[in-house]
Design a protein that fits this description.
This protein is an alpha/beta fold. It folds into two domains: 189 residues, Spore Coat Polysaccharide Biosynthesis Protein SpsA, Chain A, CATH 3.90.550; 242 residues, Alpha-Beta Complex (Spore Coat Polysaccharide Biosynthesis Protein SpsA, Chain A), CATH 3.90.550.10. Helices cover 34% and strands 23% of the residues. It contains 15 helices and 18 strands. Strands 1, 2, 3, 4, 5, 6, 7, 8 and 9 form a nine-stranded mixed beta sheet that branches. Strands 10, 11, 12, 13, 14, 15, 16, 17 and 18 form a nine-stranded mixed beta sheet that branches. Helix 2 crosses helix 4, helix 4 packs across helix 5 and helix 14 runs parallel beside helix 15. It is elongated, with a radius of gyration of 25 Å.
Length: 492
């Protein structure tokens, strides 16, 4: 086969690099290999067909521009890991064939993962318009059409240290499709052995804040380029248009949480306010003793409304709708998960005050990660500072969640309604609301988020993680389309 690929690989351990380079050279379609590193590699690595590019990181805009300049072949392959790469039989030929057949700007594939000595298949998701997360998993092997790469690099006017490759794929996606080839074409090594429930908070870890700021800038540029960026202009929210039985309702959907529900209920009923509030618990047909605990508390305190739905097909979102549309629901509906606790007795007052002070239809708070003994665990306080009044509604399309606890102006929530799912329903709701209204923020911790083995996202397999991410990508796609249409209509 004609030599059609220039390959760029991240520098690493010399022995690992040698395995990767030798494996790549076995493919007939490799024209040359470029090792990206700050210091000149060992002479044994720089044989015929192998050179080096002096650069600090593959992730920098300056590196992307240099790669675009150096690539003289029809395709450019970027391997983003420094650990050994093991290509499958005719893997690169298959990627080239797919790119040619579809005219895709970038092709990526499923792969095998070696983790803790075991080789397992790792399928990835199809790319959508709403796959705007900077941590979208393409795997580590990316085949770009060099023409698309060069065109995108020419438009990369904002220099990034961390967001260069992210900016690249966003710009390529503006003119080309990013094609997922659902075939296992290579094997890579994975050194991060943490469970899914530990990895999911990496993007809000304070030490990653500089990276997040760059990612937000890159995404904002992309949204403006495709007509999906919204100005920070919001209509006034009028809180006196309807009457409610109480000022606020805390809503807790629950199913089989006998270990935690009593603590959650106590943390709500001990709240101190200058206004009436209640607690609506939607007990989704618990069978472990949860129902009995709730019945006992409902008899002792009339503020607790214990609902058991007639339906058996409700997810968490469907249970929320049961509570929101209940005639005893207050003006503001405030979230508390059945696993968690409010941090003090003034949380409800703090949230309600934020609605009036910030004139918003939704409020998102801050929480503290703890174990079951209420001891703080990493990453500690999750404040989602990536939400800002000026650009939060746009940056919401990049991140995978808006934070917690969440609270809503009930008339808006009743109009939009909550998707009847048990994952991502809150994110879908937040995106929709942010398209129309300002979302308020509270940066002081409001509740303790208890992480334990029975959390719904504590340890997910690849299929479940992919399903969750696919759903959120779909929600983002729908929201992005709605925003583009909104801007188009307003411009016309």
């Amino acid at each position: 086969m004609e030599k059609l690929i220039t390959c760029f690989i991240a520098a690493g351990n010399e022995d690992d690099l040698k395995i990767t380079v030798e494996g790549l050279k076995e493919s007939a379609c490799i024209q040359n290999i470029v090792i990206v590193t700050e210091e000149e590699p060992a002479k044994g690595l720089l044989s015929a067909g192998t050179e080096w590019l002096k650069a600090a990181s593959l992730q920098a805009t300056s590196t992307v521009r240099k790669m675009a300049e150096l690539s003289k072949s029809e395709f450019t392959l970027i391997y983003t890991k420094s650990l050994p790469l093991n290509l499958g039989a005719f893997a690169l030929e298959r990627m080239i064939q797919s790119a040619m057949d579809t005219q895709a700007g970038m092709v990526y594939s499923d792969y095998y993962e070696i983790k803790e000595g075991q080789r397992k298949p790792y399928p990835v998701n199809d790319y959508q318009d709403g796959s705007l997360r900077d941590d979208f998993n393409f795997g580590s092997l990316l085949l770009y059409k060099s023409k698309a790469l060069k065109q995108a690099a020419e438009k990369m006017d904002t220099p990034f240290d961390y967001a260069g490759l992210y900016d690249l794929r966003l710009k390529v996606s503006q003119n080309y499709r990013l094609l997922h080839l659902p075939e296992f074409l290579y094997t890579e090594m994975e050194t991060d052995n943490r469970r899914s429930g530990e990895k999911m908070f990496d993007y809000v870890d304070p030490k990653n804040r500089g990276v997040q700021i760059e990612m937000e800038k890159a995404c904002t540029l992309h949204l403006k380029a495709i007509g999906g960026w919204l100005k920070p202009q919001f209509p006034e929210v009028r809180f006196s248009e309807e009457k409610f039985p109480v000022e606020a309702s805390v809503i807790i959907p629950v199913r089989n949480r006998v270990k935690t529900i009593e603590d959650a209920v106590k943390s709500v009923l001990s709240q101190k306010t200058s206004f009436p509030f209640n607690l609506i618990v939607i007990d989704n047909h618990s069978t472990d003793g949860t129902s009995e605990i709730l019945s006992k508390y409902a008899k002792e305190d009339k503020r607790l409304i214990h609902l058991i739905p007639k339906r058996y097909d409700l997810g968490i979102g469907g249970c929320w709708n049961e509570g929101v549309f209940h005639p005893m629901c207050g003006k503001f509906a405030i979230q508390l998960d059945s696993d968690d606790l409010y941090i003090n007795d003034s949380v409800i007052s703090t949230i309600v005050e934020a609605f009036y002070q910030q004139n918003c239809a939704m409020v998102v708070g801050t929480y503290q990660m703890v174990n079951f003994k209420l001891e703080e665990i990493p990453p500690g306080i999750i404040d989602h500072k990536e939400w800002t009044p000026d650009n939060g509604r746009n940056n919401a399309l990049r991140i995978n969640g808006l934070g917690a606890p969440r609270a809503f102006y009930t008339p808006v929530l009743r109009k939009i309604r909550v998707p009847n799912t048990s994952y991502g329903e809150d994110y879908a709701l937040g995106l929709n609301i942010s398209r129309h209204y300002q979302i308020g923020r509270i940066y002081d911790p409001l509740y303790l988020c208890r992480r334990w083995d029975e959390n719904s996202d504590a340890s997910l397999d690849v299929a479940k993680m992919n399903a969750h991410n696919h759903y959120k990508d779909r929600i983002r796609t729908m929201e992005l389309w709605a925003r583009i249409a909104k801007n188009k209509q307003e411009n016309e």
